Amino acid sequence: MIFTKKQSVVRSVCDGMSAPVSEIPDEAFALGLLGKGFAQNPETGVFRSPVDGKIENVSKTKHAYSIHTTDNLDVLVHIGVDTVELKGDGFEAMVAEGQNVKAGDIIARVNLDLIRERGFNPITAVLITNPEKIENIAYKFGDTIAGRDQVMFYSLKS
Question: Which of 78, 95, 108, 154 is catalytic?
């Protein structure tokens, strides 16, 4: 009898192209120093939870969201590069710390035009920040629909 590990997924957070983290113009993300995951180039300003879990942290500037998943992982959704400097301008959190979310629930609304007008790149990082708990990681990059399309696939380590 052959037993295979259950495969889990991380879904797209926004409509737009998904790509390797190496495409993020920020060394910490591009080199995978903050975790394993992917980048997304948003086409619209609606951002959705990529996983089922609990909102652990919403940054004061509303550009970053930490979600503790139902399978005990920590996922970071970081909208834009250096967007912390906007001090919350253009960002609206749709969730609060302690709130349970399902994959596909709206977590933020963002004014992408404002981000670009102020000289920032809205490329978004979606990372598992405790990657030591996962293995057999695979990706499906390309055009995605927020909350629906599966981008990252993994198994939990035993």
Answer: 78
pTM, rounded to two decimals: 0.95
Residue ranges per structural domain of the chain: 7-156
The tokens describing 61, both together, are 């500037």
pLDDT at residue 7 greater than cutoff 90 = no
CA atoms of 49 and 4, how far apart (whole Å): 27
Return the residue matching tokens 């981000």. 115
Q: State whether CATH 3.90.1010.10 applies to domain 7-156.
A: no
Q: What local confidence, expressed as pLDDT, does residue 158 receive?
A: 83
Q: Are 151 and 142 in contact (CB under 8 A)?
A: no
pLDDT range class, residue 6, cuts 50, 70, 90: confident
How many other CB atoms are there within 10 angstroms of residue 6's CB atom? 7
Strand intervals (E) in 6-52: 7-11, 16-20, 36-42, 46-48
Whole-number mean pLDDT of the chain? 95
Active site residue 63: no
